[in-house]
Amino acid sequence: MASIVRHPKNFWIGIIFLCFGLAAIALIGDNEMGSAGRMGPGYFPTVLGGLLSVVGLAGIIRAFIGRRLEAHDAIGTFHIKDIVIILGAVILFGILMRGAGLPAAAFVLVMLSSFASKQFSLKGSLLLAVGLAIFSVLLFVKLLGLPMPIVGPWLGGA
Question: Is this structure's pTM higher than 0.70?
Answer without folding.
Answer: no
